[in-house]
Design goal:
By secondary structure, the protein is of the alpha/beta class. Helix content is 34%, strand content 27%. It is globular, with a radius of gyration of 17 Å.
């Protein structure tokens, strides 16, 4: 059986107005839930550099949360600085939302029901206690995962760098294991300005789109096609469909053909070398696992 999901592509240059228009068309509202908004804030770069989720995309989402207890959080190497530089602490004050570097959160070890590569995963307690998770990703290439969209964004729910270093070299399979425990209820991709080549170095590409829907696999399939990828050839997207079921996608709004640009996938030398060293560290740490 193939499940069918609608995914909407909204075209525009302004992050806030484009997201508002998208959410209007998706009739998005959440009431009286404990909500986690999970942006991509791995490094202290700005959204215009193509690296981080624009704060005004999250602003538009916050306006649709009624009587909710809200946490905005991520766990990356430079999340605290990213939260500050991109205006997330001010946004939290404005909407009475807690803004949190999940690296500081209590860690809960969860067993993976149908392990692909990880038998157990260390996750943020805040994430696990959330009733409704909104993955607000950035439209970016990734050296190991090819794309880093709404599913890969859930990797930022693993606190502490030492834990992530153990998992990151296994990221394509690890994503599937993480999704078995935490599944986003709603997904948005900030594609106003995407990022080619890699996930940390700034190589911005103007796309002028916001993508959204309720299913992370369907949304990522559309996002990857907008970047010129074939979803079936992206390992973690294929693995997710193998684990959770095939997705038939109904694209609404702008067509993929009208907005599609082929992203440059050449990463240079720095990131592959860094990941080669990380792979060695990961192997050592996995011999003496902390979880």
């Amino acid at each position: 059986m193939v499940d069918s999901y609608k995914v909407y592509i909204e075209k525009g240059d302004d992050p806030y107005n484009t997201t508002v228009s998208l959410l209007d068309k998706l009739d998005f509202w959440v009431e009286k839930k404990r909500v986690l908004i999970k942006p991509n804030l791995t490094t202290p770069k700005t959204s215009s550099e193509g690296i981080t989720t624009d704060v005004n995309v999250c602003r538009a989402i916050l306006e649709r949360l009624k009587d909710c207890q809200v946490v905005i959080g991520d766990a990356g190497s430079g999340t605290k600085k990213a939260l500050e530089r991109n205006g997330y602490y001010k946004l939290g004050e404005e909407f009475n939302a807690q803004v949190k570097d999940l690296n500081d959160d209590e860690i809960v070890i969860k067993n993976v029901p149908n392990s692909v590569v990880l038998k157990r995963v260390p996750l943020s307690k805040t994430v696990l206690e959330s009733h409704y998770i909104i993955s607000v990703a950035k439209l970016k290439c990734h050296v190991l995962a090819q794309v880093t969209l709404c599913m890969k964004n859930m990797f930022g729910c693993v606190p502490k760098r030492t834990n992530r270093v153990q998992i990151h070299p296994l990221i394509n399979d690890a994503i599937i294991d993480i999704l078995q425990i935490i599944w986003p209820s709603f997904c948005v991709i900030d594609g106003i300005i995407g990022n080619e080549r890699e996930e940390v170095g700034s190589h911005p590409i103007k796309m002028g789109i916001i993508i959204g829907g309720i299913d992370p696999i369907a949304v990522d399939k559309v996002g990857s096609r907008c970047m010129g990828f074939v979803p079936e050839e992206v390992r973690h997207i294929k693995g997710a469909e193998d684990m959770f079921g095939k997705r038939e996608v109904q694209v609404q709004g702008e067509s993929i053909e009208k907005v599609r640009k082929v992203f440059d996938r050449s990463s240079g030398l720095v990131t592959p070398i860094r990941y080669a060293l990380e792979s060695i560290s990961g192997k050592i740490l996995r011999k003496f696992p902390r979880f």
